[in-house]
Amino acid sequence: MATKVIKGGTIIAADRSYRADVLIDGDKIAAIGDDLAGDEIIDATGCYLMPGGIDPHTHLQMPFMGTYSSDDFDTGTAAALAGGTTMVVDFVLPGAEGGLLDALQEWFQKAGKARTDYSFHMAITGWNKQIFDEMPKVVERGINTFKHFMAYKGALMVNDDEMFASFQRCAEIGAMPLVHAENGDVVAHLQQKLLAEGNNGPEAHAYSRPPEVEGEATNRAIMIADQAGVPLYVVHVSCEESHEAIRRARQKGMRVFGEPLIQHLVLDENEYKNENWDYAARRVMSPPFRDKRHQDGLWAGLAAGSLQVVATDHCAFTTEQKRFGLNDFTKIPNGTGGLEDRLPVLWTKGVRTGRLTPNEFVAVTSTNIARILNIYPKKGAILPGSDADIVIWDPEATKTISAKTQKSAIDYNVFEGIEVTGLPRMTLSRGRIAYRNGEVLAQTGDGRFVEREPHAPVSRALSTWKELVAPRKVERKLEHMPAGV
Ligand code: DUC
Ligand code: ZN
Ligand code: ZN
Ligand code: ZN
């Protein structure tokens, strides 16, 4: 097979930066070094070479709130490649009747259109014997993460009883639970209260899901994970209340991971106060954008390591779909886009401002999640033997983000008008040029499923050491037996 050599670039890894050539043979990185020779030369002078972005949180073609999210695996992964992301992890939602394996089959079918590599998280949206029995079979299929919604009452939400049972099952089978942490009962009450008071616009969406409901749910999920003896991954950490819970747990030695979204790092709740209904509704997602003061904490957490991953929760709905909630904010489909913009916006607002180093950027967009999901160093690294998923990053290239030029299928972009500096010049996916200078070259169906092994038992440790065997009951007798006993 013809080989490729990328020359003249600086490799940015999570732990260091250095000048070297990269030799690619087929799907894999074959060698890293000086003056390497190959059949095809790719000039990366002045550019950085970074492991392809991994977005661990997408909802492509997902049935939700009476409709389907508009980006499917075709358009969604085209957007990903244009933004330097070479792998997505999408959420499989079991239907009301169907089991986990049926749903998984459906998602494999949808993902047949993917242009990037992909994996799945399995959602646990109820609890019964079928789910209990099917969970290990899901792990056998290469999926070691299970998502739990603590919100969306009456639809996806699970209660504490169900969550504890599922977390214990995860512990048994070497899987890791994920949570969408919001107190769904309180949200449902607040929604009804706001509607009854005549608050039916998009701004009420934010009032119905204050940071406190996220903080409470995060604390609760951490406690339940600790009692079940599993690590925990908290998706879309949007506020200080939730971050604080994670930080405290980690200080106590718990393996709890936190994932802020690029949207929450950059956009704030003022977006919902826009007088244009469409503008505000397009930004409705859960958790909602927060008061600006939360953003400094999230950025600091990424630098300090109390938060590990930046994702998108890409769940794109058109303006027409958003208008389902014209008279009732609780019916506005929740979700925003971001797959194409995550890396450029994070680079611009994070690296160029000095909040993150280039190495930290690589850690939070690729390497950390590869390790958490147990696919490192196949993914998340530029190392001999790794998949040749590489972004050739031009740190000086600029553009203004606009829906007019995006690959996503929706008619707007929540980052519209933001000028970014730092863009992929080329994206390689398993050795193939998948994106170059504005054009997606990877074809529909080029993506492959990435199997993930179960976690080793060592990663299941708790805050406090707990006996792995059943605790022994202590036999006691009274010191002075009463007479006649
Ligand atoms: N939040 C969203 O905004 N969309 C999809 C699901 C979710 O939790
Ligand atoms: Zn969520
Ligand atoms: Zn989500
Ligand atoms: Zn395997």
UniProtKB/TrEMBL annotation:
Cofactor: Zn(2+)
Domain Amidohydrolase-related: 48-432
The keyword Hydrolase is annotated on this UniProt entry: yes
InterPro entries linked: Amidohydro-rel, Hydantoinase/dihydroPyrase, Metal-dep_hydrolase_composite, Metal_Hydrolase, Metallo-dep_Hydrolases_sf
Record has Nucleus as a keyword: no
Key words of the record: Hydrolase, Metal-binding
Domain of life: Bacteria
Alphabetized Gene3D superfamilies for the sequence: Metal-dependent hydrolases (3.20.20.140), Urease, subunit C, domain 1 (2.30.40.10)
Family statement drawn from the similarity comment of this UniProt entry: Belongs to the metallo-dependent hydrolases superfamily. Hydantoinase/dihydropyrimidinase family.
Protein name, as recorded: Dihydropyrimidinase
Annotated source species: Phyllobacterium phragmitis
